[in-house]
Structures are given as structure tokens and as C-alpha cells.
Amino acid sequence: MAHSVDCALPCMRWRGGLSLKCLLFLVSVLVGFEAVPISVDKTKVKLAEEQDTGLHYDRYLREVIDFLEKDQHFREKLHNTDMEDIKQGKLAKELDFVSHHVRTKLDELKRQEVSRLRALIKAKQDIEGGKDMMMDHQALLKQFEYLNHNNPHTFEVEDLDRLIKSATNDLENYDKERHEEFKRYEMMKEHERREHLKTLDEDGRKKEEEHHEELKKKHADHPKVNHPGSQDQLKEVWEEADGLDPEDFDPKTFFSLHDTNGDGYFDEQELESLFTKELEKVYDPANEEDDMVEMEEERLRMREHVMNEVDTNKDRLVSLDEFLIATKKKEFLEPESWETLEQNQAYTEEEMREFEEHLAREEKDLNQKTLDLQKQKEELERQQEQLNAQKLELQQAVEHMARLKTQNAEPPAEHKGEQIYL
Question: Which domain of life is it from (predicted)?
Fold first, then answer.
């Protein structure tokens, strides 16, 4: 699924600067609105559907953003703040000048977040039974570097600086992590195929290999995939999706048509939507040979490629100017052929070998743990049997003692019924 990066609240963009919401959510990757005069009725602006950033501190991030946006001084400082200054923490220093009300609310938010993290730490300690408590505490804190834990009470410049840098770093690594997940997916799929072949006899393996090769050929047999972001690719969208004459193709009009939120920029989601026609040439969910997980990886590759070529200021948005400049380049008019995933295996044989070795080690460890647990179970059963035997012996001893006591309390049998004569 294409990753959505829309923002729930207005994300305003000023000349020469980025909105705080755009900044913190993937450093401007989130959708924004063009700056409008104060007199514009903002209730008529259609807000994008709220999307989770995928960060574990998403709620805290959103709440901090919401309150900072309410401070006029802080918003005005964004006018002349460029991306590198933001990343280096220069914007965070402006926190000293926000209103008392905003600072008070940020203090409260931080205390709540610190309490939440402490509850998580306590829960982890409880689960682990207190073992290696200090180490676990430090390891868990390491995951929450967006907070200054030395000051759990007030929200300071360092907190905003940490939050900006953490969100920037985490979200910029998002695509990289997705690629790694896809690689593991592909290797696991191949591993399972090879393991299945081991369960078959010679004839079965031969048929399965032939079927596998047939599926690969069928998947590779598709119409030419245009180079993403090229004139041919965009013209195809213009003609087939927009229903317009390819001879009348106009880049500026095309941009306006597909800038769906009208903010003057192509965000990642809007870019990815342009590749649907190309992907449909290769992938069909009804076909056995087509893997939809691979389709989304292909979509990601296309979007990354276009961003690398067109997004010259690296703010993860494509402006109209950047787009128009790109349409004048030779690469736009005469692009190289695009190699799809089947032409670019996600992993090397060396990586596959290491992956299978890792799986083998995990399986061995799991088997050893299973064996250890089985031995522990047998030992517990043996001990239980001993306890049951001891319990039985004790019960028998108690019953024997009770019988002896009863016998001692009764009169001798020969005296029963006898009369005594004087």
C-alpha cells in the first residue's frame, strides 16, 4: 500500500519557509496548503484525512505541533528559516520566545509523555520479573531520545530540538526500512520454496521447478514500462487517466490536474498515484504470478527515483518550478529504459546464504529451547510423582496412626459382657 503522508490540520507554507507541521512530519513531506490571506475563510479549506506517521511518539508529536502553531511569533520565524537551519536546531531556539500559555501547555504535555514512558518501563520490568532492571531501564530510554529525561517537568529548547531531529531521522529512514523488510520478504519466500522442494520426490521437484519458471516468464511478459517521470510516462497518464489528447500535453496543466490538494506541490502520495498505470501493466491481483507486495515495492522505487531526479532542494516535495525544470531535461525527453523488479533481484546469493544460515541458527536455538523445556517438563513431572508418592506415604502413615489410636482407646475384648460377683 502506498504510504499516505497527509496531515489532519492545515499545513501552511510561506515564501522561503516551511510550516512546522510539514517540518516535523517528515521534514515537509506532509501535504501543505498555499499561504492565503488572513481574510480567507479557512472553514472552506478541505483538510486532508488524518494519517499516523508510524512513529511510536506520533500522538505526542502531533500535540506539540498543534500548540506551537498557535503561537504567532513561532510561526512568523518560519518565514526565513531554511531546511538545514531547522535540522541544525536553530528554529528550536525560538521556543524561548513563545507565549507563556503555550509553554505551560507544552510542559504539561511533556509531563504526560514522561509518565507514559515510565509506565512502559515499569511494565517491561514487571514482565521481565525485575531481571537486569537497570540495563532494561537504560535500553528502553534509548528508544525515547526525543525527550530530555534529565528534566521531566518542563518543555525546553532541547526538547523541541530533540523532537525535530528524531522525527526527521526516523521518517527519513522509513523508506530504507521498507526496502529491508521487502528484501527479507523475498528471501523468506524463496527459502520456503526451496524447503518445499526438499519434501518432494524427483518428479515432483521437476514439475514444481517447471511451474515456477513458467510463472516467472508469465510475469515478465508485459507491455513496456515507461521510465517513471518521463514524458512518455506522463503522456500516458494524460491520455488514459485524464482522457486528453497526447498531442496537447502541457506540463503545467498536467501538474495542476494531479496536484490533488491544490497546494502547489507534488507530495509523495500524489507522485505515487501517477505510477498506477505503469504498475497495472505488470501486476494483476488475479494472476498467480503477480505479487502485490512486489508491486508496492516497485511503486516505492519509482517514487524514490523521481524524487531523486526532480526534488532539487531535497524537501521531499516537488514544486511546480522543479517539475517544469525537469520536463526540459534530456532525461525527460529521452530516458533510459526502466528495469522492473524481475530484472533487479532484491538480494544477492550471498545475502540469501546468510539469511538461511540465520534461519538455521534460529531453528537450532528454538529446537534447543524446546528440548530444554521438554526436559524441564519431564523433571517437573518426576518431582510431582515423588511428591505424590510422599503424599501417599504420609497419608498411609496418618491412617495407620489413627487406627492404632482407635485400637488403644477400645476396652480389651475379653472383658466385654463379663459380670463381677462379690
Answer: Eukaryota
Cα–Cα distance list, 366 to 95, 193, 355, 371 (Å): 51, 21, 16, 8
* Cβ partners under 8 Å of residue 263, min gap 6: 13, 31, 32, 33, 34
Q: What is the SS3 assignment for the chain? A: CCCCCCCCCCCEEECCECCHHHHHCCCCCCCCEECCCCCCCHHHCCCCCCCCCCCCCHHHHHHHHHHHCCCHHHHHCCCCCCHHHHHCCCCHHHHHHCCHHHHHHHHHHHHHHHHHHHHHHHHHHHHCCCCCHHHHHHHHHHCCCCCCCCCCCCCCHHHHHHHHHHHHHHHHCHHHHHHHHHHHHHHHHHHHHHHHHHCCCHHHHHHHHHHHHHHHHHHHCCCCCCCCCCHHHHHHHHHHHCCCCHHHCCHHHHHHHHCCCCCCEECHHHHHHCCHHHHHHHCCCCCCCCCHHHHHHHHHHHHHHHHHHHCCCCCCCEEHHHHHHHCCCHHHHCCCCCCCHHHCCCCCHHHHHHHHHHHHHHHHHHHHHHHHHHHHHHHHHHHHHHHHHHHHHHHHHHHHHHHHHHHHHCCCHHHCCCCCCC
Whether 173 and 53 have beta carbons less than 8 Å apart is answered as no
Residue with cell 497518464: 237
What are the cell numbers at 228?
517513471
The more confident residue out of 65 and 219 is 219
**How far apart (Å, rounded) are the C-alpha atoms in residues 22 and 18?**
7
Contact 168, 133 (CB under 8 A): no
pLDDT digits (tens, 9 = 90+) for 149-169: 566 566 666 666 666 666 666
Mean pLDDT of 69-92: 68
Question: Which residue shows C-alpha cell 531546511?
Answer: 83
Average pLDDT over residues 247-260: 96
Domain 174-347 CATH superfamily: EF-hand (1.10.238.10)
Look over the chain and give the mean of its residue pLDDT values, rounded to a whole number: 77
pLDDT given at position 233: 97
- pTM value is 0.59
Q: Could you tell me which of 79, 65, 81, 53 has the C-alpha nearest to residue 10?
A: 65
